[in-house]
DNA sequence: AGAATTATCCAAAGCGCTTTGGGGATCGAG
DNA sequence: CTCGATCCCCAAAGCGCTTTGGATAATTCT
């Protein structure tokens, strides 16, 4: 069933039917109701491709999804997506996800923009320098980053968590508790969120006249297996760290297991603070020793990004261009005074 | 840059340029190269909405994603998606995800079909009865289910894991080890995969003259928190179970924590077999006591579904309509002889 | 009552692409 | 030299929708 068939059946022109459906005023109340009813009965749904072609709008936001055999599913990603979806469903938006191999992302974005399928683009996993940001900046499609490239000034719209501040604060707490030997269990080094967290830690350490030995800084995907292995290595270090900062509760999961396995007591022999993205399936308060965390909901970030993107497309002008969210430090049992 | 501009610039007609670009034979080698080069230089990418409108093909597969404030991110979902993406990227396909509140899914699918944005539809989280399946069956768009509705005969294309068989086999193993008191930590009851797993367990129990007390069967979302709480309740049961089947490693995570907290030894005091979807961030072999599992890769299922869907659209006829994958029973340390 | 609005509706153009149905050269064959 | 093939290429229609620019009939104003 298309517009033509529907209008034929009603004995009206396509113009009128289209207007009735889209709430334009140039149509009488009576016909409008008749049209609406017929659309309902016949189950008419407009063809979005045609709509998009005619209006230039698609009610959809695009994102490219990295795909490679070695890249598995990421719970952080789906958590974020659920937030984005929450907002999208309210406004009848949808997403188009273009999978791309990591070395072809720029092209994937280009295709996405040119495709005419999307009104706006969302970008995550920011690196530095990031050619994707350059591309977006020079094209005319609305976009929004989750994260920032490095540096102080930013001439692009973003929503980011103050990762540096979060880890700075966390490290400060640990320093106050008397810790001197730190380790870092971080996400992939190329991502700026990881870099910033490292900087936050190093800054706090430097202020205390300390530093982070390279062999006690680990970078990897944020899964429990990586956390386990890295922590085992940390524990075998001649100067075993007593305080560790951890970029994700997923990493912490493995790390805690390694700590237990070594017969150490979390919060006593060794303190740990993890960043908590509030993954719905992995809550830090449920660990056998509840985890002290820096918290910032990924889902909320997704929802907010959806809100801003959709708002911008609708012409809202009261939306901030750039937002930096502070993470919340929540002290639980995994942190305690430094041993001896 | 659109086709018209490109062809003007080349002094050719849109027809010729289009044909050159799409590899039709009615164009000389020389012009073809000239066109290709110009397209390259100008960065011309065809407008997909227009292409879709003209051809009826979109190189995209659609899926609806349940969205509600109380639904968080699901690592199973993103694991599956990564498999789907792996296949999609090979063929330059993309997805469109339509978020929908749980009570509006049928409509969301209708819109998706009518939208003209997608060539095929993928459906997961099958329930019984499932109105979405009815809808798909009666519409003419290609589709594929991950899972099945209940019953023996199925007149729709699907890929499913033999959930009943998996839990039957798992229960058999436990029975052989002498266990008599079972518990079940399952996914949401409305999903058929959960129902089937329960049936598998009950069948094995019945064959041994045993049964599953209702209070020892727990249904919920598959996260660690739910696993922890349910297991705590199980352990408080007057007839504490010695064997538990668990629908996910995420649930097992919480369950194991409850077991440890109670001072029980996994694989000695209590045995546990979990279904392993091979979540990349949560491997059963890395648990402090490695988990015995029934394994079936969600990612592989995603890839296979992508393969079949894309293959079908390309006209391949050598693809099976229905596939049932056996899960692999992998014995590790979380299972042992029944105590006393 | 005649003019000026106002309320409804329609025909047709256009979004960017593919595809049908030719049409003019070029070339070897008769 | 002419005729049918063979190559290349083009004009125009059509995909399903929105939107511009009227047209017609019904109201209101003076």
Task: Provide a descriptive summary of the structure in words.
The structure is a homodimer of 340-residue chains. The first copy, chain A, is of the alpha/beta class. Chain A is 42% helix and 16% strand. Chain A contains 12 helices and 12 strands. In chain A, the strands form 2 sheets. A 6-stranded parallel β-sheet of chain A has the order 2-1-3-4-5-11, with helices on both faces. Chain A has a 6-stranded mixed β-sheet with strand order 7-6-8-9-10-12, sandwiched between helices. In chain A, helix 6 (105-115) runs parallel beside helix 7 (131-138) and helix 10 crosses helix 11. Chain A is elongated. Chain A starts with a helix and ends in a 10-residue tail after the last strand. In chain A, 50% of the residues are buried. The model of chain A has no long low-confidence stretch (mean pLDDT 94). Chains A and B meet through helix 4, helix 5, strand 2, helix 6 and helix 10 of A and helix 4, helix 5, strand 2, helix 6 and helix 10 of B. Strand 2 of chain A pairs antiparallel with strand 2 (94-100) of chain B. The structure holds a DNA duplex (30 and 30 nucleotides).
Short key terms for the protein model shown above:
homodimer; 340 residues; alpha/beta; six-stranded parallel sheet; six-stranded mixed sheet; 12 helices; 12 strands; 16% strand; elongated; DNA-binding
Can you lay out the helices and strands and say which pair or pack?
Two copies of one chain form a homodimer.
Chain A: H1 3-10, H2 14-21, H3 29-42, H4 48-55, E1 60-66, H5 75-90, E2 94-100, H6 105-115, E3 120-123, H7 131-138, E4 143-146, E5 158-161, H8 163-176, E6 182-186, H9 192-207, E7 217-219, H10 224-235, E8 243-246, H11 249-261, E9 271-276, E10 292-295, H12 298-313, E11 322-325, E12 328-330
Parallel strand pairs in A: 1-2, 1-3, 3-4, 4-5, 5-11, 6-7, 6-8, 8-9, 9-10
Antiparallel strand pairs in A: 10-12
Helix pairs in contact in A: 1-2, 5-12, 6-7, 8-9, 10-11
The structure holds a DNA duplex (30 and 30 nucleotides).
């Amino acid at each position: 069933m298309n517009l033509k068939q529907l209008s034929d059946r009603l004995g009206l022109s396509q113009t009128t039917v289209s207007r009735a459906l889209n709430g334009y005023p140039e149509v009488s109340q009576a016909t409008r109701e008749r049209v609406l009813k017929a659309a309902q009965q016949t189950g008419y749904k407009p063809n979005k491709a045609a709509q998009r072609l005619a209006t230039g709008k698609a009610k959809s936001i695009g994102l490219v999804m990295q795909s490679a055999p070695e890249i598995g599913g990421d719970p952080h990603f789906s958590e974020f997506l659920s937030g984005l979806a929450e907002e999208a469903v309210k406004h009848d938006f949808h997403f188009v996800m273009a999978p791309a191999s990591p070395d072809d992302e720029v092209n994937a974005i280009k295709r996405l923009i040119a495709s005419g399928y999307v009104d706006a683009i969302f970008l995550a996993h920011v690196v530095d320098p990031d050619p994707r940001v350059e591309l977006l900046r020079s094209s005319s499609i609305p976009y929004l980053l989750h994260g920032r490239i490095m540096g102080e000034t930013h001439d692009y719209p973003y929503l980011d968590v103050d990762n540096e501040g979060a880890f700075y604060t966390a490290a400060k707490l640990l320093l106050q508790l008397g810790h001197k030997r730190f380790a870092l269990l971080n996400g992939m080094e190329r991502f700026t969120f990881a870099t910033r967290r490292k900087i936050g830690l190093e800054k706090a350490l430097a202020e205390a006249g300390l530093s982070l030995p390279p062999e006690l800084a680990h970078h990897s995907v944020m899964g429990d297996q990586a956390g386990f292995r890295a922590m085992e290595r940390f524990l075998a270090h001649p100067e075993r760290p007593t305080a560790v900062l951890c970029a994700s509760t997923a990493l912490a999961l493995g790390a805690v297991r390694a700590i237990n396995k070594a017969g150490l007591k979390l919060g006593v022999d060794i303190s740990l603070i993890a960043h908590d993205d509030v993954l719905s399936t992995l809550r830090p308060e449920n660990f056998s020793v509840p985890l002290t965390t820096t918290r910032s909901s990924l889902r909320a970030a997704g929802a907010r990004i959806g809100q801003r993107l959709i708002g911008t497309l609708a012409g809202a002008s009261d939306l901030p261009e750039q937002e930096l969210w502070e993470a919340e430090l929540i002290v639980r049992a995994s942190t305690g005074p430094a041993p001896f």
